[in-house]
């Protein structure tokens, strides 16, 4: 599994995906979680970032433009895309903003926020 994730990470880093600097966050089974370090923007106490979830068994990459408010422990998906992982062809785009969701420090999103904020 670790070898698979290493290969996946190399492919992502060398790809022509819209994300320029994907950083690995975590993986569960065949699903990997990443954020684009080049997309991180701070606006006061709000962070905007592009996140990606890759489901290898489905040949899908899901990208999300996310607005995070760490002080409130909330995140909001601003837009999303579903791509074919191997070709990066966009299969679906959703520009509908979603309602803010709460996260806990121990959740996947909480761990992602810690990595983005503190590079831990």
Task: Fill in the keyword field for this structure.
single chain; 120 residues; alpha+beta; Lipocalin; eight-stranded antiparallel β-sheet; 2 helices; 8 strands; globular
Protein described:
- The chain is of the alpha+beta class.
- It has a single domain (2-118), classed as Lipocalin (Beta Barrel), CATH 2.40.128.
- The protein is built from two helices and eight strands.
- It has helices at residues 2-14, 108-118, and strands spanning 22-28, 31-36, 41-43, 46-55, 60-69, 74-84, 90-94, 101-102.
- Strands 1, 2, 3, 4, 5, 6, 7 and 8 form an eight-stranded antiparallel beta sheet that branches.
- The two termini are 22 Å apart.
Number of domains: 1
H/E topology pattern: HEEEEEEEEH
Task: Please describe the biggest sheet, giving its number of strands, its sense, and whether it closes into a barrel.
Answer: 8 strands, antiparallel
Q: What is the mean pLDDT?
A: 84
The dominant shape is globular
CATH architecture: Beta Barrel
By helix and strand content, what is the structural category? alpha+beta
Span from first to last CA? Answer: 22 Å
Number of helices: 2
Count of individual beta strands: 8
Give Rg in angstroms. 14 Å
- The proportion of strand residues reads over 45%
Residues in helices, as a percent range: 10-25%
Q: Uncertain spans, ≥5 residues at pLDDT below 50?
A: 1-17
CATH classification, class level? Mainly Beta
What fold name goes in the CATH topology slot?
A: Lipocalin
């Amino acid at each position: 599994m670790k070898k698979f994730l290493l290969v996946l990470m190399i492919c992502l880093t060398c790809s022509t995906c819209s994300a320029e600097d994907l950083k690995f966050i975590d993986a569960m089974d065949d699903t990997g979680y990443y954020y684009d370090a080049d997309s991180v923007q701070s606006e006061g106490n709000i962070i905007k970032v592009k996140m990606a979830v890759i489901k290898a068994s489905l040949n899908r990459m899901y990208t999300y433009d996310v607005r995070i408010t760490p002080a409130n422990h909330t995140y909001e998906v601003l837009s999303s895309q579903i791509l074919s992982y191997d070709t990066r062809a966009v299969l679906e785009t959703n520009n509908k903003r979603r309602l803010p969701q709460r996260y806990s420090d121990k959740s996947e999103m909480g761990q992602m926020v810690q990595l983005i904020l503190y590079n831990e």
